[in-house]
């Protein structure tokens, strides 16, 4: 804009000189044109030099504009790619979270006995996921800080280059506003990410408390049922032992009674055996006594030759 003004002034000056030149013949007739002085030559050279610098400055400004446009398009493209990646990552994380919640619900119904170990494992998994999220957040934060640092460096260089050109302060202000908007977007994304993490954390803690309460109530119910069953089993077992003891006692009493009967019968049999032995011994003694008496009688009557017959006859009746 100032260069155009300079050009306009130059044109006016040229026209002024032309008017004077045209007016000179009228006033002076055939007066010869004076030779340019050394000062005029230096001013002409300075004018040409300034004109060349102005043209080079315009070219440089055009290059800076094209570079700025390319830089802004690159930033927008990178932002769009990053937003698409973030959207894909959020969808994947949401899908993983839903799958995790489905698995967690299924495990809640099927693994009541191993509840404590399962809770510990889930807590460890959540802690690992939280650490991964923190690490990912720190990495993204570092990446954004690096990007912001690069933008600040580029802005600094651009500001230094544009500081020499007072006519492009408006462009500088626009770039600063865009950078501020980018910084605001970065801060907004950070706050949204922090809110998302806090929401996930609060949701997890709430579900953990509910799950713990449900688990405690189920464990208490199972413990009560187990105690009741144990008491019932103990009572049944005690009653069974009492019945078995009574039955065994009756059987033992019957065995004792039978043993006493058998012992009494054995004593009777023993007495009978002794009686039979005494009777047998008495019969043998009687037989010997008879034989001795007969032998004495036969000897007295000299009937020794017939002793065998007499003994045979005596033995057959007995």
TrEMBL record:
This is DUF4515 domain-containing protein. It comes from the Eukaryota. Residues 1-15 have a biased composition (Basic residues). InterPro entries: DUF4515. The keyword Coiled coil applies. Residues 94-286 form the DUF4515 domain. PANTHER family: COILED-COIL DOMAIN-CONTAINING 166, DUF4515 DOMAIN-CONTAINING PROTEIN. It comes from Pinctada imbricata. Residues 116-192 form a coiled coil. Keywords: Coiled coil. The keyword Phosphoprotein does not apply. Residues 1-38 are annotated as: Disordered.
